[in-house]
């Protein structure tokens, strides 16, 4: 696992591949991919000319949030994995649940939900008590991703932000909305050990409320259907 860090001069560096017993506390980003992402080959360059890419905004956001929470390291999948290396890519896929579970905090960056601090608390005149951002939040492309299932369940703390960095709430405070959108039961969102759920229940989460939610196949959720006799070799589906 590689991690990013930012120094006082706002220079970013990526660590070497860290052993499991040498990974420091870190934050992790959950996001949707855009057309101009910062990738692994970019972050290896000096100076950081990739700051001009559109994808830099979410990296800066993650670095800022991590710093606020006293974390020196953070992980962003688009640039911490060398996707040109097929073996590394597959290893990362198989490790994803573990990496999200091991993070101190997970930040969800909703690039298609715009909310300024002055408008975030405003409510709808048609639906008193319902925030104006509610519909945009529910309709975010983030909820249609195959990776969303495990990125919702794995982290202990997960926080949701607009593309302007405005905080909407965490997994607990937004529990009812998340349950409505995804069909994942509230108990599963509360970090209850997953062995309390049957295999059929866990498979149902992949189906979600409908195939348009992106949970319609094990393959698309990044959950491997392979089984191993050795518990240490369990893949993400087995961990679910």
UniProtKB/TrEMBL annotation:
Output the InterPro entries linked to this UniProt entry: HET
- Which segments show compositional bias classed as Basic and acidic residues? 226-240
The UniProt annotation puts the region (Disordered) at: 220-240
Q: Which residues form the Heterokaryon incompatibility domain?
A: 26-151
Q: Which Pfam families match?
A: HET
Its name, as the record gives it, is HET domain-containing protein
Q: Which organism is it from?
A: Microdochium trichocladiopsis
- Highest classification ranks of the organism: Eukaryota, Fungi, Dikarya, Ascomycota, Pezizomycotina
């Amino acid at each position: 696992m590689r991690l990013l860090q930012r120094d006082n001069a706002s220079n970013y560096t990526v660590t070497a591949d860290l052993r499991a017993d040498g990974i420091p506390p870190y934050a992790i980003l959950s996001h949707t991919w855009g057309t101009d992402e910062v990738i692994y080959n970019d972050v290896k360059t000096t100076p950081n000319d990739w700051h001009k890419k559109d994808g830099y905004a979410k990296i800066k956001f993650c670095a800022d949030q991590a710093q606020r929470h006293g974390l020196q390291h953070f992980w962003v999948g688009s640039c911490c994995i060398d996707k040109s290396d097929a073996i590394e890519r597959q290893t990362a896929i198989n490790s994803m649940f573990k990496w999200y579970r091991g993070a101190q905090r997970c930040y969800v960056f909703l690039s298609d939900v715009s909310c300024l601090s002055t408008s975030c608390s405003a409510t709808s005149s048609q639906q008193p008590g319902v925030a104006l951002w509610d519909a945009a939040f529910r309709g975010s492309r983030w909820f249609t991703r195959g990776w969303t299932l495990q990125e919702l369940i794995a982290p202990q703390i997960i926080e949701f932000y607009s593309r302007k960095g405005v905080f909407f709430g965490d997994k607990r405070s937004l529990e009812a909305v998340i349950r409505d959108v995804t069909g994942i039961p509230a108990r599963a969102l509360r970090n209850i050990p997953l062995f309390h759920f049957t295999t059929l229940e866990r498979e149902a989460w992949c189906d979600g409320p409908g195939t348009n939610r992106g949970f319609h196949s094990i393959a698309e959720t990044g959950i491997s259907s392979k089984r191993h006799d050795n518990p240490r070799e369990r893949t993400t589906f087995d961990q679910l």
